[in-house]
Specification:
single chain; alpha+beta; four-stranded mixed β-sheet; 7 helices; 43% helix; globular
Length: 192
């Protein structure tokens, strides 16, 4: 399976990390059928992203090779490639600080920030606790109900919070207005 994705294979060989290779779960996921479409798309997007930008991202990743930074790197690669596909006739700028990408779209600045949700072991445990499995047996049949809570912005950490609060909290945390911030009021801002 892994050889079907030569661009991903090259990327992973460049960012190989030791000890406790954080790439192992990602490489294993490439073998799963449900991840194959994402892997094919990411493999393609790697072929079109700006190589100088990518090399800089790899260099920065090597300074702090964590599972979270790997997830963020893959998210930014996918975002960058999709921007190139959607806005191929527009120039993409790579600011040193602030948002991840800027596009001059018909004279208007568009700032794009990549958001890659991260789940800690505690959040993963809380997610598992939110899975409901219930079986009811009747004389002639059995009914099974399974419900799973998805919380892309994180699960509530306090009893008074909810998943909507967590989403608002993430959006409220976006830095704005000053130099080096992710978004400004005089630009179109996209959280991807």
């Amino acid at each position: 399976g892994y050889n079907k994705f030569p661009n991903l294979k090259t990327l992973f060989s460049e960012i190989k990390s030791e000890p406790g290779n954080i790439l192992s779960p990602v490489i294993e996921s490439l073998k799963r059928k449900d991840y194959e479409e994402i892997a094919h798309r990411t493999n393609y997007l790697l072929s079109i992203v700006n190589k100088d930008w990518l090399n800089n991202k790899i260099k920065n990743f090597k300074k702090s090779s964590t599972k979270e930074n790997l997830s963020a790197l893959l998210g930014e690669i996918r975002c960058h490639g999709e921007i190139k596909c959607a806005f191929e006739e527009f120039e993409i700028y790579y600011p040193d600080a602030g948002s991840d990408f800027i596009i001059d779209f018909l004279g208007k600045k568009v700032q794009i920030e990549t958001y890659t949700p991260q789940e800690s072991k505690d959040e993963d445990k809380k997610t598992k606790e939110c899975i409901l499995n219930e079986e009811t047996n009747y004389s002639d049949h059995k009914i099974t109900i399974k419900a799973e809570l998805k919380a892309p912005f994180g699960l509530p950490q306090r009893p008074k919070d909810n998943t909507q609060y967590e989403a608002v909290s993430k959006f409220s945390g976006i830095k704005e207005c000053k130099e080096g911030k992710q978004f400004s009021k005089d630009a179109i801002s996209i959280l991807w």
